[in-house]
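Notebook B, p. 112. Complex prediction, attempt 2.
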Amino acid sequence: MTSTIDRAVGARSLARVEGVDKVTGRARYAYEYDADGAAYAWPVQATIAKGSVTGVDVDSVLGRDGVIGVLWHGNAPRLRDTGDPVVAVLQKPDVAYRGQVVGLVVALTSEAAREAAQQLPVHYATTDHDSVLRADHPSLYEPDRVNPDSDTDSVIGDADKAFGESAVRVDVTYRTPAEHNNPMEPHATTATWEGNSLTVQDSNQGGQVVRDTLAKAFAIEPGDVRVINAHVGGGFGSKGTPRPNVVLTAMAARVVGRPVKLALTRQQQFSMVGYRTPTIQRMRLGADADGALNSLSHDVIEQTGTTKEFAEQSAIISRVMYAAPNRRTAHALVTLDVPVPSWMRAPGECPGSFALESAMDELAVAAGVDPVELRIRNEPAVDPEEGTPFSSRHLVECLREGAERFGWVGRDPRPGRQRIGRWLVGSGVASSTYPVNIVPATARVAVDGEGRYTVSINATDIGTGARTALLQIGAEALGVGTDRVTILIGDTRLPRAGLAGGSMGTNSWGWAVHKAATKLADQLAAMSGAVGPEGLEVTEGTAADVKAMESFSRHAFGAQFVEVRVNVDSGEIRVPRMVGVFAAGRIVNARTARSQLIGGMTMGLSMALHEEGLMDAQFGDYANHDLATYHIASNADIGDIDVSWLEEDDPHLGGTATKGIGEIGIVGTAAAIANAVYHATGVRLRSLPLHLEDLLAAPNMR
Amino acid sequence: MRPFAYERPASAEEALDLGTAGSDVAYLAGGTNLVDLMRLGVARPRLLVDVTGLLPRSIDETPTGGLLVGAGVLNSDLAADPRVRRDYPVLSQALLAGASGQLRNMATVGGNLLQRTRCLYFQDATKPCNKRVPGSGCPARTGIHRDLAILGVSEHCIASHPSDMAVGLAALDALVHVRGASGTRMLRLDDFYRLPGEDPARDTTLDPGDLVTAVELPVPSALTRTSGYRKARDRASYAFAVGAVAAALDIEGGVVSDVRIALGAVAPRPWRARLAEEALRGQPLTDEAVVAAVGLEMAGAEPLPDNAFKAELSARITSAVLRQLGGAQTEELP
C-alpha cells in the first residue's frame, strides 16, 4: 500500500497518454518493429578477463543451421573513432574484461544465432587479470576530473586540524558494492540500411547521441541516420550512452545486407551495459558538543576499467548538504580488468549519500543529538563550498514535515529498546539531494486549420511519464485543453533535444516546449482572423536561455524516514513503512511524479537490502548475473510508502520552474534503512547490502 | 539452445521407452527449471519427453490412511489441499515459501524434487563445475559460496539443494515412488538423493529413464499435525532459502517425546538432523537444548568463510520453529 497527498497547487494528474497503447501491446519497443527479412544477431562474449583473441573458427558454424554471418575483429568492418571506446566493438584483438564482445553471430532465427554463439570456438592468449577493488591497491590514482565535469578534490580550511580539535568525532569507512541497472526492457536494436542511410529502432535514453555516434562510426552523414525510440522500457542510466548492441546491430545489418535485430539477455546486461562502481568511502566528521560540524572529510575510492575512464562523483554530495567551516572531498580510482562502470540512477549522490547520511547518524549518536535536529543544526545559509546562494532550499522543511508525517517526535534514541514479538523495531532518517540539470533543447509547436496542435521534440520517455508532462506543459502554455494537443517524441527527425538522464528531461525539454508554445500562443493572439488551412508553426531553442542563467546553486532536497523490523531469530530485515518528503520545484504531474519518487525509494530499499554484484576474483566477473541471483526488491519487500512534496516557487529555474525528480528518490534511502537497523539492534552496518548474518551476534537478538 | 526433439507420449510405458533410450533424454514437466537450464546451455537434451499429460495429478488417500500425491500435482494445488494443510502443515508452508505464485502454478511435485542446484558455477556454462562437467573443478570453495552447503559436501562439490518442498517432505519421512525399466520401487528421501562424493554429477540414485510417479505421505499423527516450516531469506518473497528448517514435534508435559528436524539450504539434499532429533528426545524443550542439539548435527559441518553463519542460523530458526510448535500444542491442550 502506498499513499500520497498532492500538495502542489496546480499540479495535475493526467494519466500517461500512451498508457492504453502500452497495456494493449500497441506501443512498439525497439525489438518489435517489422523489418522485412530480418536476421538475428547474438553476441559472443569473452570467457577470459584479460588477454587477446587469437582466432575464431568461423567456418565451424557459418552456413550451418541458418547462420549467415560470423563477425570478429579479424573480419569485422573497420569503424571510425567515435570518441567512446565502449562502442568500438570488434576492432581489436584485446580483451579488457570477461564478458566483452569478441564475436557476433547472425542467423535466420534468434535460436540458431544463440546456439551458434554458444558453440563458436574462440581462441585466446590469456594474461593475469586484476579485478578486485581494494583500498590499498598500489595503482590508486586521482582522475583529472570526476563526472559529469567536476573537480576531483575540494578543500576549504584545514579539515584534518579541525577534526583533531573537535569535541565529537566520527572516523569510519563505508562500502557499497557494484550495482547493476536492470531496466525491464533489455538493450535492443532493430537496424535497417537503405543504401547509405541507416534507420535504427533502439532502446536508449536519448536518440541524438546514438545518431551522432552511429554517423561517426560508419562514416556517414548524421542526416542519413534515423534513430527511433518511441517507447523505452526503463534505463536507469544504462541507456544514457550508446551501448555495444546498437553498433553491433548496424554493423551486422550492413554485412549481411538485410535488417538485423538484437536483444541482450538479462545475463548479458550484467557485463555489457555498465553498472555502478563499488565504492570505499572514508568519512571523518568533527563537531562541537552540540553537533555543529567543524570538519567534514569525504574520501572516496572507486574503480574504472581499462577501456576508458569513468570517475563516479560520489563525494560531491558532501559539497552541498551541510555547513562546516573546514572541509575536504577527494576521489581516487583504481583501473581494473572489469567492464567500465557507467551511469546508474543518481550517480555520485546515491552511493555518496550512504556514507554521508550514515556518518551523520553516527555523529548524532556520538553527540547525543536527535538525528533530525543534527541535520537542521548544520543547515548552510549558502552553498557551503561555492558560496553562491541557493535558488531555493527546503531541506529543513522536508525534515520537519517528514518527521511529522512519520511520527518521529518522542522517539527513544537508545538502540534496541523497541520490540514486537520476535521483531526488533527501529527508525532512521536521511537527507536527500540531487542537482538541477538543464541543457539546451529545441521544440516545434504547430497548429493546423482545425485548431489542433502538435508539439514535436526529440525527447525520450523511458517510462517516467515525460511524454505526458511535456504535453501538459505545451497545452498549458497554449491555453488549450490537453485533448487538443498531440505530442511527437522519440525520433531524431524531430527537433533536437538532449537525453533522458540527470533528472533534466522535463527541465530541459519542457523549457523549449514552453517557449515555442508561448510564442505560438502570442502569435495566435495577435492575429486578426483564424489560422488558415496551411496552419502555423513555431520552432524555438533554449541554448541562449540556458547560457544566460544566473549564478545560483540549484538543487532539489528531501528527507526520508523509515521503520525497520529485524527478526531476532534469523536477522531478517523488513521495512514496513517509508516516508519521503521532497522539495523539487514545481511538480508538473502529481501522478507520474509520485510514481517516480516511489520508484526511487523502492530502488533505494533494493540497494540497502539486496543489490550486490559479486565479483569473482578467480574469473574477474560479476558471478551473479541474472535476476534470480542478483536480487532486487520484490513486491513483498515493500510496505507502505508515503510520498509527498513541498511546493517550491523558484524563479531561478528554467521555463518550467521544475528541478527534476527522476533520481532524488533513491538518494539517502539506503542510509535511512541502515540507520534504522542500528536503532533496532545497536549494530552499525557500514557495508551494503545489509546482510542478516551480520546482525546475529547482537546481544538483544534473542 | 540447440535444436531438440519433443515427444508427448500417451502412456508411462511409452515414456519409459523413450526415456531409457539414451542419456541425453530429459523428462519435461512444469519446465520451470529445465527450460532455464536449456537456455543457459547447461542442459542440452536431444529429446524432451513431455510427461505432463500422463503423470498422476491427483492426491489420494492410501489404504493405511496416508496420502499419495501424484508426481504431476502442481505445487500450488498441493499447498492448498485441505488435508495437507490440516495433517501436514509443514508441507503446505514449505511449498508456499518457495518460488513465486506463477512458478508454483507451473511446477510439479516430481519436478520440484528433481530441480538442480542454483550454484552460480553450475549455472554458468563458461566456467568449470564438477556437477556439470565432471573433472573440470569446483571454483565455489574459493569463490562465491554464501548460498552453498556446509554439510554432506565433498572436495568436488559444495552445491546446496534449492527445494523448500523437499525439506518438508524429509521431515515427514515421505516416500518417493519411482517407476523404471525394471519395475517400480519406493525410496526414502535420504535414499533418493545422494551426496556428491566423488561423483557430483548425479543428484539422485535414479537410473536414466526412471520416472518419479508419486510421493507418499505417512499416516497423519500428532507429530505430522504439529509441524511447521521456517525459512530465512534475504528477500521477503521469491528467494531461495539462506537457512530453512522443517520440523514436527510431539511434546508431553514440556518434554519432547518425538521430533523430526530437516534442514534446508545447508546440504546437497534436505538434511535430516537425526543427531539433533536423538539428542532432543526425552529432553525438556528449551532454546538451549535445541541449539545444543543442532550444534551436534553441525559438528560435521565443513563451513567456508562466507557460509559459516549457516550453522548458527540453522540452530536459531530450529529453536524458533520448535518453540512455536511447542507453544501451539500446549495451548491446544485442555
